[in-house]
Design a protein that fits this description.
The complex is a heterodimer of chains A (111) and B (116).
Chain A: E1 4-6, E2 9-13, E3 18-23, E4 28-36, E5 43-48, E6 54-57, E7 60-65, E8 70-75, E9 84-92, E10 99-101, E11 105-110
Chain B: E1 4-6, E2 10-13, E3 19-25, E4 31-38, E5 42-51, E6 54-57, E7 64-70, E8 73-78, E9 87-94, E10 106-107, E11 111-115
The chains are: A mainly beta (111), B mainly beta (116).
């Protein structure tokens, strides 16, 4: 089953913050986050391996609550370059290497 | 830099044709994947392969088959293309053995297939 992402779409002004949530019905080994810009391939942002782990990448960070099987992606002081579709991917404990992606969150940043 | 190359960016085929989508990676990755991307549905896994000649069904394998005769190449085959297979197809590769990038997926640019 695909992880559930929310919201499906977000429109921000430059400088505003956003949170994208990802929830899985299965026990997770890890959570991956990817960004896909329009017309391009998805690109890896970060992976969270341990429960409660938070990782950062520029002004983009993420957390992973293993017990709740949830992850959140935080975009701080958004820039125009952050526009794109964000996908979370869940890697199950019993199916290592295989990632099931959510339906995506489309983020639009306006000047 | 990891490079995943898909042979065509755009393809137009007719209903009933046999279609081959090719993917090549240059990083000696063990795992290779085929996804289908449709608006609102995200990336759905069709098939993946964890070794040469090994394959496993993903979530939507119906109407598709795959072939992996060499480690670097993974082919997606539509035996008899149908209009509901019109979509963007993405190939990816990863390695479970890379300590620094374990199971991180690297994607190709995609093939947009139209079946008329």
């Amino acid at each position: 089953q695909q992880p559930v992402q929310s919201p499906q779409a977000v429109i921000l002004r430059e400088g505003e913050d956003a949170v994208i949530n990802c929830s899985s019905s299965k026990a997770l080994y890890s959570v991956h986050w990817y960004r896909q810009k329009h017309g391009e391939a998805p690109v890896f942002l970060m992976i969270l391996l341990k429960g409660g782990e938070q990782k950062g990448h520029e002004k983009i960070s993420a957390s992973f609550n293993e017990k709740k099987q949830q992850s959140s992606l935080y975009l701080t002081a958004s820039q125009l370059s952050y526009s794109g579709t964000y996908f979370c991917g869940s890697e199950g404990i019993s199916s290592a290497s295989k990632i099931i992606f959510g339906s995506g969150t489309r983020l639009s940043i306006r000047p | 830099d990891v490079k995943v190359t898909q042979s065509s960016r755009y393809l137009v085929k007719r209903t009933g044709e046999k279609v081959f989508l090719e993917c090549v990676q240059d990083m000696d990755h063990e795992n290779m994947f085929w996804y289908r991307q449709d608006p609102g549905l995200g990336l759905r896994l069709i098939y993946f392969s964890y070794d040469v000649k090994m394959k496993e069904k993903g979530d939507i394998p119906e109407g598709y088959s795959v072939s992996r005769e060499k480690k670097e190449r993974f082919s997606l085959i539509l035996e008899s293309a149908s209009t509901n297979q019109t979509s963007m197809y993405l190939c990816a590769s990863s390695s479970p053995l890379d300590d620094l990038a374990k199971n991180i997926q690297y994607f190709g640019a995609g093939t947009r297939l139209s079946v008329l």
